[in-house]
């Protein structure tokens, strides 16, 4: 064939382009444009050679980003001219082995409509098969051991495809072409049902296992269900006794339970939902979405137990995301509680034997299967605020997709490991212009938590082929993440300690692509400051390289240290004691009278003598204090309970526009201090007058927001900065978040908030990595 | 010397006044032939075999506290350290560093309780030294004691002896001493009575060793508490140690105060408790022997040695989770967010 009118190109496409039907897509597209050539998976993504008429080639190139498969994500296309070859068709060729790996791993994806339809079709060979999937859906991250993403590197390697499945797998025009987890009832994984003694009760029949599990759920039994990234404990959400039993057995008296229901379920009559929320809950990421409950009067019905999310404005709801979930809901109760299956404080169980050991005292039955989970992925938790996606936990369905960070300007970040904080931890690895945040790892106080942490770092390094040259960590010496970093330091890696709230600020700067110097308003729970005190209510000015603390809440003692976090009443005593001194004993308010006098006296002695009473400027602790003072929450049984209950109790309409007086003073070091004293007295007066606590709670939130905005604005004036980032776990409070954003925007500030990563400690690792990258860059520049 | 007199610098200068203090105050209390000789050191016969030798200094504040005082602590502490080597303590030395101005009455009380403690433990205080330093140079009184003891043939206990399958016994309730000292020092008021557990453990150790049941590790979890001591053992023996929260013996009032303070009883000091790590098969028998001792009535098995997570101590919590019991690193900063 001559070269007349033929041109050819070599094209490299990187991003999430493996295991998402990208090669068949290119195959089809090339054929449609009458092009010849070939395509293969490579370590950076897909490698493509195409030739044909120049105008067809151009049209082809334009169509790629336009028509790419749903789950793909293109991060870079590099195309170079090449001499045409003697080709007569377009082919898909086998993966090549090269050294560097920069292909992106797709997260796990909720079952697609095509698969669902097949699963519900009695004539289909996969009728009611709980592991149906295709290149558009199914497990990814949780079953992958290494890349390239090929079946032998996944937990599907122990299942040999039957001839029918193999035919689909090898046909480029089939939806299951190279769908690595492809399977059917003949050759694939199967479910089975055990009782809590570990005995199989389904008569060796998978269909019976599903049917019985559903039946037991309808009877109010607790069933442990093996899912995509771990176990759930399931129970009928309409059955108050069953829900209570689960609470009892799981030792979880108040923490909200996540719910799962099909799209047509009556559950959605109980919550408000706007268009964005609808889109989010229906998205293939399938997060748990926080949706505002309707007032009880609007939702009189028997289909929801009242004890699912007490003291909470929202219900956490997700749609089914595996075929197994669909079957369970179809045959079982309409609405299921689906709470994570883990030992208290430990990561999700992923192993059948471990689950039996961990929940035999909780679950009555175990619905298991024989496809191994290699890597945990907790359900993600998200919501929509001000029209934008906000994560409370970024995990299954999103991680390990990277966050694109194009700053600092150059798009070649050093390879950094950000080690995260101590609770709700994630880790972060950077490469080029990407920050890869791990799925939620969680608390690091248990052996399992620490092992999972180490395994996650190892796994992420492997699948992303990133070898960190620098390690960033929190300043808290007690965090396991810090200790782990120190250990890497001993092995010779340079360490960079990043202050907790500086990291919060940078995580928000990074995802908003900000550079230079900005204001940061950080409202948080606990973070060790550079002065040895616990921070969490600060206005900073910061760049990637450093920060200055310009304003803070006044310090309050935390009598009992961590005990002051789990017992908000201690913080209430600290708040009152700062204002009233010993006079606190005589305050005629229900909170003080509810306290045991000797306990109160003891606490006062502790604060006076500074025994285990570290100082804190934390906003989270202030919420705790007020929540206890208003008798909303005395002790907590789950993280942030007092603050969440306060927000729920607050009657926002009633307080409109009336904040308590507050004052901003200046400390010896020039740092502005937001003083709590001026509003504690009028608040106590309100309590004495019998003003409803909902109103006081609302006034408190407004006061806090106003005080923070005032402090930030003053620092803004002094420094001439008008860009402000908001971060820290307190911004999960919707009221405070909206009030502060609104006030700042009204004053003319450019306000930047989180959408890609959580505002809480799940985002810390990103900020740490950004600080280290900037410092590393500065070092290199200096030679 | 009169009870109302105060100690002067002269009392430690080695002259007449020092001599008078020794012969009038110290010697009668510590009455024994070896000390009475007043030589530069004590000379005594020792049988062939192995000896254990240990020293410790005591600077506790306050010097008098419910359940004991600094003198008793100084004797019991060294008796116990020697006993934890598997040895029977025999002789003890005492070095006193006294702040000028101390009441003779107070010093006498301390010396009396040292004498009492020595008698109870069956050891003799055979040599010593007294210094008096100007006001402010020490806080009231510091005491150093050293002791030597004889190891029975065949006894071999050491922190590196723990083996998977062993059980961990603690000889009684924990944190009593730590809570007592803290609340006395800080003047914390509460209704319940707590007192130090200061006690000699050498008789208990002797009974256990003489029973012939193998013992792999003996330790007294003093400063840093049970948590720190077990971490040391886990590292020394390269084993994992698993504790069960529901078995940890803590007196009600002590637990209450710890809860209020936000302190973990696992990290508070004990002065009359031992940890015995023994093969699982003999654990109950050893436990019975310990319980027969006057200071071991509340002894329990609190955990076991495993081959998992070497170097780590893991607590199985009341609510069915696990928590790593870390080595205490300086001040406990809040970490929950
Ligand atoms: Fe934080
Ligand atoms: Mg000692
Ligand atoms: Zn599909
Ligand atoms: Zn098949």
TrEMBL record, chain A:
Top EC class of this enzyme: ligase
Positions annotated as active site in the UniProt record: 23, 41
Query: PROSITE patterns under this entry?
Result: ACYLPHOSPHATASE_1, ACYLPHOSPHATASE_3, YRDC
According to the entry, every stretch annotated as the Acylphosphatase-like domain falls at 8-94
Give one GO molecular function term: double-stranded RNA binding
Domain YrdC-like: where?
A: 207-397
* Catalytic reaction equation(s): C-terminal L-cysteinyl-[HypE protein] + carbamoyl phosphate + ATP + H2O = C-terminal S-carboxamide-L-cysteinyl-[HypE protein] + AMP + phosphate + diphosphate + H(+); an acyl phosphate + H2O = a carboxylate + phosphate + H(+)
Q: Name one GO biological process term.
A: protein maturation
Look up keyword Zinc-finger and say if it applies.
yes
Which Gene3D superfamilies does the entry link to? 3.30.110.120, 3.30.420.360, 3.30.420.40, 3.90.870.50
Q: What is its EC number?
A: 6.2.-.-
> Which pathway is this protein assigned to?
Protein modification; [NiFe] hydrogenase maturation
Family from the record: Belongs to the carbamoyltransferase HypF family.
Q: Which UniProt keywords apply?
A: Hydrolase, Ligase, Metal-binding, Transferase, Zinc, Zinc-finger
Q: What is this protein called?
A: Carbamoyltransferase
Instruction: List the source organism.
Output: Desulfobacter hydrogenophilus
Q: Would you say which domain of life the source belongs to?
A: Bacteria
TrEMBL record, chain B:
Q: Could you tell me which residue ranges the PurM-like C-terminal domain spans? A: 163-314
For this protein, the parts annotated as crossing the membrane are: none
Against InterPro entries, the record matches this protein to: HypE (IPR011854), PurM-like_C_dom (IPR010918), PurM-like_C_sf (IPR036676), PurM-like_N (IPR016188), PurM-like_N_sf (IPR036921)
Q: Which SUPFAM superfamilies match?
A: PurM C-terminal domain-like, PurM N-terminal domain-like
Q: Which CDD domains match?
A: HypE (cd02197)
Where's the PurM-like N-terminal domain?
Answer: 39-150
**UniProt-listed GO biological process terms:** protein maturation
Protein family (similarity comment): Belongs to the HypE family.
This chain belongs to which protein, by name?
A: Hydrogenase expression/formation protein HypE
**Organism (species):** Desulfobacter hydrogenophilus
């Amino acid at each position: 064939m001559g070269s007349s009118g033929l041109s050819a190109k070599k094209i490299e496409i990187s991003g999430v382009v493996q295991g998402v039907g990208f090669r068949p897509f290119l195959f089809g597209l090339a054929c449609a444009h009458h092009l010849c050539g070939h395509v293969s998976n490579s370590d950076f993504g897909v490698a493509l050679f195409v030739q044909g008429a120049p105008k067809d080639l151009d049209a082809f190139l334009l169509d790629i980003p336009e028509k790419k498969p749903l789950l793909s994500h293109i991060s870079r296309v590099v195309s170079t001219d090449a001499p045409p070859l003697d080709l007569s068709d377009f082919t898909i060729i086998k993966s090549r082995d090269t050294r560097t790996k920069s292909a992106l791993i797709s997260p796990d994806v909720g079952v697609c409509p095509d698969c669902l339809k097949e699963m519900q079709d009695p004539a289909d060979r996969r009728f009611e098969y709980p592991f149906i999937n295709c290149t558009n859906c199914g497990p990814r991250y949780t079953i992958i051991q290494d890349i390239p993403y090929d079946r032998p590197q996944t937990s599907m390697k122990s299942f040999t495809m039957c001839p029918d499945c193999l035919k689909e797998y090898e046909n480029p025009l089939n939806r299951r072409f190279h769908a690595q987890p492809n399977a059917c009832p003949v050759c694939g994984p199967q479910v089975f049902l055990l009782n809590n003694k570990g005995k199989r009760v389904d008569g060796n029949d998978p269909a019976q296992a599903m049917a019985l599990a559903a039946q037991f759920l309808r009877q109010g039994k607790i069933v442990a269900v093996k899912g995509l990234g771990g176990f759930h404990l399931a129970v009928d959400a309409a059955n108050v006794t069953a829900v209570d039993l689960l609470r009892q057995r799981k030792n979880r008296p108040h923490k909200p339970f996540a719910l799962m229901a099909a799209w047509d379920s009556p559950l959605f009559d109980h919550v408000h939902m706007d268009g964005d929320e609808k889109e989010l809950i229906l998205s293939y990421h399938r997060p748990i979405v926080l949706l505002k409950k309707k007032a009880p009067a609007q939702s009189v019905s028997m289909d929801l137990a009242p004890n699912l999310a007490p003291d909470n404005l929202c219900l956490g709801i997700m749609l089914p995301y595996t075929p197994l979930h669909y079957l369970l809901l179809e045959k079982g109760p309409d609405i299921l509680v689906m709470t994570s299956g883990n030992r208290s404080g430990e990561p999700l169980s992923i192993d059948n034997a471990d689950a039996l050991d961990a929940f035999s005292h909780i679950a009555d039955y175990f619905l298991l299967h024989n496809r191994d989970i290699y890597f945990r992925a907790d359900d993600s938790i998200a919501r929509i605020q001000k029209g934008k996606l906000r994560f409370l936990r970024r995990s299954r369905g999103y991680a390990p997709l990277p966050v694109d960070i194009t700053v600092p300007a150059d798009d070649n970040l050093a390879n950094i490991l950000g080690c995260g904080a101590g609770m709700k931890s994630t880790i972060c690895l950077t490469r080029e212009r990407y920050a890869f945040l791990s799925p939620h790892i969680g608390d690091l106080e248990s052996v399992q938590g620490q092992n999972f942490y180490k395994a996650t770092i190892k796994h992420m390094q492997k699948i992303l082929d990133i070898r960190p040259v620098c390690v960033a960590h929190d300043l808290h010496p007690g965090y396991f993440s810090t200790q782990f970093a120190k250990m890497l330091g001993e092995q010779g890696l340079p360490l960079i300690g990043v202050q907790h709230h500086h990291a919060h600020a940078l995580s928000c700067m990074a995802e908003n692509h900000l550079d230079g110097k900005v204001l940061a308003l950080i409202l948080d729970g606990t973070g060790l400051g550079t002065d040895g005190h616990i921070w969490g209510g600060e206005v900073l000015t910061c760049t990637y390289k450093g920060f200055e603390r310009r304003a803070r809440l006044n310090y309050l003692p935390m009598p009992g240290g961590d005990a002051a976090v789990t017992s908000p009443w201690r913080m209430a005593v600290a708040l009152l004691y700062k204002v009233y001194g010993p006079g606190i004993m005589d305050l005629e308010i229900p909170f003080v009278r509810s306290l045991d006098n000797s306990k109160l006296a003891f606490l006062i002695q502790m604060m006076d003598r500074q025994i285990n009473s570290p100082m804190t400027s934390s906003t989270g602790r202030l919420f705790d204090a007020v929540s206890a003072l208003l008798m909303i929450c005395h002790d907590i049984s789950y993280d942030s309970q007092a603050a969440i209950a306060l927000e729920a109790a607050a009657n926002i309409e009633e307080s409109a526009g009336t904040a308590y007086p507050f004052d901003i003073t200046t400390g010896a070091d020039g740092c502005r201090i937001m003083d709590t004293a001026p509003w504690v007295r009028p608040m106590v007066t309100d309590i004495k007058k019998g003003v409803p606590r909902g109103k006081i709670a609302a006034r408190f939130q407004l006061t806090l927001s106003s005080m923070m905005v005032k402090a930030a604005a003053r620092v803004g004036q002094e420094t001439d900065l008008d860009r402000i980032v908001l971060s820290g776990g307190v911004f999960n409070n919707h009221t405070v978040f909206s009030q502060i954003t609104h006030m700042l925007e009204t004053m003319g500030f450019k306000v930047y908030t989180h959408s890609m990563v959580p505002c809480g400690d799940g985002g810390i690792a990103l900020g740490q990595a950004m600080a280290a990258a900037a410092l590393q860059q500065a070092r290199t520049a200096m030679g | 010397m009169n009870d109302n007199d105060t100690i002067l610098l002269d009392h430690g200068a080695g002259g007449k006044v020092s001599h008078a203090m020794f012969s009038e105050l110290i010697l009668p209390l510590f009455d024994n032939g070896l000390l009475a000789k007043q030589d530069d050191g004590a000379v005594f016969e020792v049988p062939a075999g192995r000896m254990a030798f240990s020293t410790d200094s005591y600077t506790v504040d306050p010097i008098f506290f419910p359940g004991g005082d600094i003198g008793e602590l100084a004797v019991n502490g060294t008796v116990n350290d020697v006993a934890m080597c598997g040895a029977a303590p025999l002789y003890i030395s005492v070095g006193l560093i006294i702040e000028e101005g101390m009441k003779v009455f107070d010093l006498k009380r301390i010396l009396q309780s040292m004498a009492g403690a020595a008698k109870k433990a069956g050891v003799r205080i055979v040599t010593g030294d007294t210094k008096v330093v100007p006001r402010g140079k020490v806080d009231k009184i510091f005491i150093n004691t050293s002791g030597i003891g004889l190891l029975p043939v065949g006894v071999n206990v050491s922190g590196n002896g723990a083996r998977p399958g062993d059980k961990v016994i603690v000889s009684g309730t924990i944190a009593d001493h730590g809570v007592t000292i803290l609340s006395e020092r800080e003047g914390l008021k509460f209704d319940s009575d707590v007192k130090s557990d200061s006690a000699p453990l050498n008789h208990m150790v002797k009974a256990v060793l003489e029973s012939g049941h193998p013992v792999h590790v003996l330790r007294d979890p003093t400063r840093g508490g049970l948590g720190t001591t077990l971490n040391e053992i886990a590292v020394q023996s390269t084993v994992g140690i698993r504790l069960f929260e529901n078995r940890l013996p803590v007196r009600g009032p002590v637990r209450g105060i710890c809860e209020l303070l936000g302190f973990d009883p696992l990290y508070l000091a004990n002065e009359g408790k031992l940890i015995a790590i023994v093969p699982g098969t003999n654990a109950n028998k050893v436990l019975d022997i310990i319980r027969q001792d006057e200071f071991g009535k509340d002894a329990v098995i609190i955990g076991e040695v495993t081959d998992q997570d070497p170097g780590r101590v893991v607590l199985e919590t009341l609510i069915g989770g696990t928590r790593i019991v870390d080595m205490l690193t300086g001040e406990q900063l809040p970490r929950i967010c």
